[in-house]
Design brief:
This protein is of the alpha/beta class. Helices cover 42% and strands 16% of the residues. It binds nicotinamide-adenine-dinucleotide (NAD).
Length: 261
């Protein structure tokens, strides 16, 4: 049958987006709004319950369907409670976006000095969090005939230099593993690797007057920084029927920064 643009619609689907209630202009919020606009009911999940509530209110006020859930992705019981809340609110889960992470509040000490506590905390959220959330929802996806998992990695993993990049590179390994393991259940798993994004958190790390932006300008094929909204189209492809044959992939959305010399 011929392709129809309707294949990008998500009507009747239920999506969970972690890390969607953080600092004002955050990527998870853009993902949650985009999924709702495509017709999905959205569970806005974050450690920051108030922020998650504000994003869910924004979706409901625009005529969409959303609930806010407090979750600590590093805590197994909390991820199971998140999955139960999704079931209670909307009947189950079809789409999981593992977007929550420590990026600003992570140690940038070098490997010789970083404390093991900081190291473990970073992995607990950035890697284990995606594992625990995926495990919490996969039975519901199977019951519903399939599902989509999208892991938010980072251009900072290519190459991985430092703790943040190492956690994000490990997430690429989790992505291919889940893709292989769940493929026969009609569950795909892919990753998005954004370049430098102008979320509030991104601007805390790379302010507008940072010399790093000049380096990005010289090395990106197109523009050096993107807004959270510029990642949403890729998420839609990976979550919708239009992208059903894509799995185990990491898609770089970065103005071509990955091709730097
Ligand atoms: N901003 C960038 O330039 C950039 C680039 C590449 C990748 N990323 C990734 O995109 C994602 C979102 O980034 P952002 O810029 O919106 O940052 P952000 O800090 O606004 O978003 C991270 C969210 O995760 C939440 N969170 C942290 N620990 C949690 C936990 N234990 N349980 C549940 N939620 C928790 C925070 O409350 C926050 O809402 C992250 O995975 C980040 O690593 C960002």
């Amino acid at each position: 049958m011929a392709f129809s643009a309707d294949e990008f619609r998500l009507d009747g689907k239920v999506a969970v987006v972690t890390g969607a209630g953080g600092r004002g202009n955050n990527i998870g919020r853009a993902y949650a709004l985009g999924l709702a606009d495509a017709g999905a009911s959205v569970v806005v999940a974050d450690l920051n319950e108030e922020g998650a509530g504000a994003v869910a209110d924004e979706i409901n006020a625009a005529g969409g369907k959303a609930v806010a859930v407090r979750v600590d992705v590093a805590d197994e019981a909390s991820t199971l409670a998140m999955a139960a809340s999704a079931k209670e609110a909307f009947g189950g889960v079809d789409i999981l976006v593992n977007n929550a992470a420590l990026m600003v509040d992570i140690s940038y000490d070098d490997t010789e000095t970083v404390s093991l506590d900081d190291w473990n905390k970073a992995f607990a959220v950035n890697l284990n969090g995606a594992l625990l959330c995926s495990r919490a929802v996969v039975s519901s996806m199977r019951e519903r005939g399939g599902g989509r998992i999208v892991n938010q990695t980072s251009g900072g993993a290519f190459p991985a230099i430092g703790l943040y990049g190492i956690t994000k590179l490990a997430l690429v390994g989790l992505t291919t593993t889940l893709a292989k393991q769940f493929g026969k259940d009609n569950i795909t798993c892919n990753a998005i690797a954004p370049g430098n994004v102008t979320s509030d958190a991104g601007k805390m790390l790379v302010p507008d007057d940072s010399p790093f932006i000049q380096f990005l300008e010289m090395t990106c094929a197109t523009k050096p920084r993107g807004a959270p909204d510029e990642l949403v189209g890729t998420l839609m492809l990976l979550c919708s029927p239009a992208g059903q044959w894509i799995t185990g992939q990491t898609i770089h959305v970065d103005g071509g920064w990955i091709m730097r010399p």
